[in-house]
Amino acid sequence: MTSVHHDPGIMRPAEVDEASHPLHALSEEGLRTYTAEVLERARRRSAALTDAVDDGELVAQHSPLMSPLVWDLAHVGSQEEIWLVRDVGGREPVRPDIDDLYDAFQHPRSTRPELPLLGPDEARRYVSEVRDKAFDVLAGTTLRGDDLTRHAFAFGMVAQHEQQHDETMLATHQLRRGEPVLHAPPPPPEVVHDLPEEVVVPAGPFAMGTSIEPWALDNEQPVHDVFVDAFAIDTTPVTNGRYAEFVDDGGYRDPRWWSAEGWAYRSEHDITAPRFWRRENGRWWRRRFGVDEPVPPDEPVVHVSYHEAEAFAAWAGKRLPTEAEWEKAARHDPASGRSRRYPWGDEDPTPDHANLGQRHLSPAPVGAYPRGASPLGVHQLIGDVWEWTSSDFLPYPGFVAYPYREYSEVFFGSTYKVLRGGSFGSDPVAVRGTFRNWDFPVRRQIFAGFRCARDVRPGAAGV
C-alpha cells in the first residue's frame, strides 16, 4: 500500500541536497556551454535519424500510429522557435504561418500526411535557421533570471522535447519496412550473472518527486513524502526467455490472466505475442530495425503493452509495481534516508551506468551495467526499456502546471498509465529518477517492458 505521509512526529525523508546537483556547481558561462552541448547533441541525433532515409521515406507515414519523420523534424524546430526565439529571446517570428501545422493538439498523427507540410529540404533549412537564432538568444540571455531562464530551464525543456521526438522517430524507424538503415554496436558484454530473482524494499517513507532538479518538468514536482509498505521487486526487468514461457504456456489464450479491458483488446486485435515477434520452426524470431534475428532470451522483453505486462505478472503470481514503489526502489538510499537523483548516486549517467542515448539499438542483457544498480541491489532501472507501472498518470500534491497546461495537465486521469526509467532510445537529458512518462495501456510500438513486484508480509525476512 502506498500513501502520502505527513506525520510531523517522525523524521521527514529528504531529497539530495541542492548543492549536489551538477548544474548548480556550474558558473553561468559553464552552464551556457553545457546547455549548448545538450542542444547540439539532440540536433545531431535528429539529423542522423532523418538523413538515414531518402526523401520519399521522410514524407511517408510508416504507421498510422506515427507521424511522418519530416513532421517530427519541423515540429521540434517550431517548438524551439516558439519558446526560445520568440518567448525567451523576444525576436521576430521565423515562420508564424506554420504554427498550426505543427501543433500536435490540432492534428492527430493519422492525419498529418494530409497537411501541407514543409518538404525535407525546407524543413532542414527551417530548423537550422531557428537553431542559429536560438544560439544567439542563449549567448545573450542571463541564466539567473525568471523561471524560464533560471538555470537555462527553457533551453533544457527544448532539448528534452527534441530528444523525446528523437525517440519517437526511432520507434518510427522500427515500424518502417525495408532494408536496415540504422547501425550501432551491441551493448557491452559485462554482465553480472546469478542475481537474486527479487529484492525486498522495507516499509517506510521516502521523498518522491523533486524540487531541486533545474530541468525537471512540471509533473515531476513538487517533492512530497510517500509511505510505502514493504514489497519485493524483481532485480531485473522480465526477460524475453521468461516472457516466452508465458506465451508458450498459453498465456495469450487464457482470459484468467487478463483484465476485462486487456482481454477485449487482445481478442479484437488477435494479439498472440509481443509486437515484432513471430514463431518459425519452433523458435521465436523478431524484426529489429530491419534485421530478422532470433529473440535473445537474456534481454528484457520489449514492445509489450501494459495489458500484456499485467497479464504476465498475474500468470507469474505477482503484479506490476506502483509508480511510488518503482521510484523508491530506484532512488531511496536506506543508509542516508535520502532520495538520490539516480539509482547509483547523484552524478549524471555515464556509459558505465546505463544503456541510454541510442548508443545501441536494443536492450542490454539483464545483469549488464552493474555500476548502475541501486543501493538495495535493483538493476537496470534506468535505460534499456521503459517500465510499465500500475499507476494512472495523476498530479502530485501541490502540482502547478508550468510553463503550459498541455505538457502534463491535460493528460491526467485514468486513461494513461505511467512508465518509468527510460529505454535504450532515451537520451540522458530526458531521463531522471523522477522522470515520468505516460501512454495508453494498449501501446506496443514504444520501447516498453516491465518488471514485477509483490506484497511482503510484515515480519518477513529482510523487512
> What's the structural domain tally?
2
Number of helices: 9
Low-confidence stretches: 3-11
Name the CATH superfamily assignment of the largest domain: paralog of FGE (formylglycine-generating enzyme)
CATH architecture level-2 label of the largest domain? Alpha-Beta Complex
Give the DSSP E fraction (strand runs of 2 or more residues): 5-15%
Class of the largest domain, according to the CATH hierarchy? Alpha Beta
- Distance separating the two termini: 15 Å
The ordered string of helix (H) and strand (E) elements is: EEHHHHHEEEEHHEEEHHEEEEEE
Give the SSE map.
Elements lengths: L1 E3 L9 E2 L12 H24 L3 H5 L9 H20 L31 H21 L12 H23 L22 E4 L2 E5 L15 E5 L2 E4 L5 H9 L11 H9 L8 E4 L2 E6 L2 E4 L11 H10 L7 H9 L6 E2 L46 E8 L19 E8 L16 E3 L8 E2 L3 E3 L8
Parallel strand pairs: 2-10, 11-14
Antiparallel strand pairs: 1-5, 3-6, 4-5, 6-15, 7-8, 8-9, 11-12, 12-13
Helix pairs in contact: 1-5, 3-4, 3-5, 7-8
Explain this structure to me?
This protein has 463 residues and is an alpha+beta fold. The protein folds into two domains: 22-175, Four Helix Bundle (Hemerythrin (Met), subunit A) (Up-down Bundle); 187-463, paralog of FGE (formylglycine-generating enzyme). It is 28% helix and 14% strand. The strands form five sheets. It has a four-stranded mixed sheet with strand order 13-12-11-14. Strands 1-5-4 form a three-stranded antiparallel sheet, covered by helices on one side. Strands 3-6-15 form a three-stranded antiparallel sheet, covered by helices on one side. Strand 7 (277-280) and strand 8 (283-288) form a beta hairpin. It is globular. It starts with a strand and ends in an 8-residue tail after the last strand.
